[in-house]
Amino acid sequence: MPTPIETWYTDIPPITRIYITAACFTSLAVQLGFVHPLHLWLNYDRILYDFQWWRLVTNFLYFGPISIDYFFHMFFLARYSRMMEEGFFRNKPADYVWLLVFSAGALILLSFIIPHAYIPFLGSPLAFTMVYIWARRNPYVRLNFLGLIVFRAPHLPWVLLCFSLLFGGQLPVGDILGIAVGHIYYFFEDIWPRDSASGGKRWLETPRIM
């Protein structure tokens, strides 16, 4: 008879399950000393001149050493990625993979071109992108944050942003990047196609190759 943890794990939709599993194994490998974070982070010089292309992927898989903060980030990634995959992207795996690929690429680009926005590991901003998109697509859902305040889902990213700013003591650049990329996707997928000027064209439509 499967344990509750096994049941929970097998119930996670496949794309989210693969991502969560890869992220857990990456952090475990670092924790056990099999790999160093310096071999995983988003180092543009290593990518461009030493052809270490794996860094474009591995920087999204490491969420820091195993700690309370690590489990906090993994919880948000698992929760909102799962709700996205089971909700808006049910039976649309290619569309969800494309969302992740686009978001990852946009985060890498923004981190590269915006001054002072460089972040060596972009897994947390990617999770924040998922939170933002889910929140904007659920305008009437009411949430309770830490039992203290009740608000509608679209306010969730901003509540989390203020929470990070309050307890982090510095500007949460990663969260801001996640919100920016999430809004870009939301605008071109949910708002722009309904505008008469768009002609109904979806600029971020999933490529046929996927």
From TrEMBL:
| Keyword Transmembrane helix applies | yes
Ranges that cross the membrane: 18-40, 60-81, 93-112, 156-188
Family matches, as InterPro entries: DER1 (IPR007599), Rhomboid-like_sf (IPR035952)
Q: Where in the cell is it found?
A: Endoplasmic reticulum membrane
Predominant localisation class:
endoplasmic reticulum
Assigned GO CC terms: endoplasmic reticulum membrane
Q: SUPFAM superfamilies of this UniProt entry? A: Rhomboid-like (SSF144091)
Q: Which UniProt keywords apply?
A: Endoplasmic reticulum, Membrane, Transmembrane, Transmembrane helix
**GO biological process, any:** cellular response to stress
Look up keyword Transmembrane and say if it applies.
yes
Tell me which domain of life the UniProt entry assigns to the organism this sequence originates from.
Answer: Eukaryota
The record describes its membrane topology as: Multi-pass membrane protein
Protein family = Belongs to the derlin family.
Free-text function comment from the UniProt entry: May be involved in the degradation of misfolded endoplasmic reticulum (ER) luminal proteins.
> This chain belongs to which protein, by name?
Derlin
